[in-house]
From TrEMBL:
Pfam families listed in its UniProt record: 3keto-disac_hyd (PF06439)
Protein name: DUF1080 domain-containing protein
GO molecular function terms listed in the Swiss-Prot or TrEMBL record: hydrolase activity
Taxonomic path: Bacteria, Pseudomonadati, Verrucomicrobiota, Opitutia, Opitutales
Signal peptide positions on this chain: 1-21
InterPro entries (UniProt xref): AL/BT2_dom
Keywords: Signal
Domain 3-keto-alpha-glucoside-1,2-lyase/3-keto-2-hydroxy-glucal hydratase: 26-214
Amino acid sequence: MKRLPLSLLLVGSFLATSLYAQTTAWKSLFDGKTLTGWQANENPGTWVVEDGAIVTKGNRSHLFYQGNVGNHDFKNFEFSAEVMTTPGSNSGIYIHTKLAPDPWPVTGYECQVFNSSKAKPGEYSERKMTGSIYAVRNTWRAPAVDNEWFVYRIKVSGKTIQTFINDELICQYTEGADHWRADDKKGRRLSSGTIALQGHDPGSTVRYRNLRIRMLPADTRSLSSPLDDPELDQLLSRMADQNFALIDLGLIAETVQQQRAQVGFSRRLGFTLGHTLSPSATNLATWGANGSVLLVNDRYQAPSVPALKAAKASGVKIAFSSGGVTRLDPERVKTRLKAITAAGLSWQDLWCP
């Protein structure tokens, strides 16, 4: 084997180390004292700095990073912040967005911050909880709690968005060339842009501190392919936009590896699996016995649209099960979502613990 001169080895090592440092060094977006580098699109009084944190408490406003890091234009990156919510507070972190006077950002994606609801029975109750890629892939169960700091991390790799709460993967979405968006969310598309924080309403108080970002190489590849079935992707996005909590109670896992694979795939669909919930939360026997829940097992046949309509008309909540399989089958999921649509169900009609 031909040996390289020591000088070349040292140069190569230096270049590799420099490249590694460029792609992994975290840079702060907030000095902990002022809002330097940040600009509100409206109602700037909504934003204050208290005890080393950016705090939103006031009328609707969005605070956009306009500082020097990356010339506030990020494509592939990891963003991290510590967040604390108060009960019932709503906020969000926008990525790939741009400063504009619009009341709500029209470009980029929102990653939801919302841990608990104060909605009364019969009122709208948000099913898009912390970690949701808002109205695209949701989690209905908050992975964090109010009045405690948690770490929110967002990673964009090519066309893949991932959200993590305290290092747990919550949602993952890979954007395809042809995807459905609601009319008021047509700008939810990856390109590049800045970070923005959401001040949602006067009743919401949320704190952000240690806001940091590190850029990834421009040629970073997507972590997964888009779903093979555009129709399924559209159905999932429609359900997410319409606030449906998607839960499957029928999967079983025979090994830890199998369970991890199931959960990983469910994160891409915006589904929650029954075996990740507590036994008390998924015990439908009592509720089913008194007629309050209809459990639909669609392992061998598609859900009956007339039966779903009848359940809705009688006020019975509806839950779904794949019937003891070890894999969340995309074709079965598509058939289920089409039946929900054909029956005219709304988010209120589906069972949610």
